[in-house]
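Work Package 3 (structural annotation) set out to generate three-dimensional models for the target panel prioritized at the project kickoff. During this period the team completed the workflow that converts sequence records into discrete structure tokens, so that structures can be stored uniformly alongside our sequence database. As a representative example, we reproduce one entry of 230 residues exactly as it appears in the project archive.
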Amino acid sequence: MSIIFHDLIGADPARPFSPHCWKVAMALAHKGLPFERNNVCFTKVLEVEGGISKIVPVVRDGTKVVADSFLIADYLEQTYPDRPSLFGGEGGQAMARFIESWSNSTLHTALAGIVMKDIHDVLEPEDQAYFRQSREARMGKKLEQIVEGREAAIAGFSTKLMPLRLTLKAQPWIGGSSPLFADYIVFGALQWARVISSAKLLEEDDPVFDWFERCLDLHDGLGRSVPALS
């Protein structure tokens, strides 16, 4: 029986964009677990699994329901230990926690100033109203003000990736010799921008570009199955 994976979408159900949901999609594929996507828009999230979470991703595996991308990865690791590991041990799980904190605080913060209005523009009208109200209340400014420095944010984004760039000069994956959940955490952030925005964030001679392209090809091209926004 397939795992039910509640995933976030906008007006186009073929373009899931949530960075946290992409982490889970890649984790499920890494484990080789069949899953069925249930498309959810922003205003329907509270209807998922009896309102277990205010956000997605959420997965149902039989009678077990788990919310939060890291908790889902931990659940998959514990429940399916015979399948490829997402962490490579306790140390790898602790390292992934650090990578998630860095990605959320550095990459997501920088990307918000680039893609926030792009997200709004690909939603259905009802979701646009919710998204605008909730994000403007959270950030204390209009969406248009949030992205006022967009071009400068795009130009400066590369510097945010320096720790990753230096790591990838020494090893092929964040996880070392093969990808782990830590890779999917950062991949999710960059895939978010790729799917939702036409902003060019990576140069082709950047080691991060090569790594990201290889991430897109993982698991029979799961990431590449959603085209970049042109």
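The domain at 90-225 is CATH 1.20.1050.10 (Glutathione S-transferase Yfyf (Class Pi); Chain A, domain 2).
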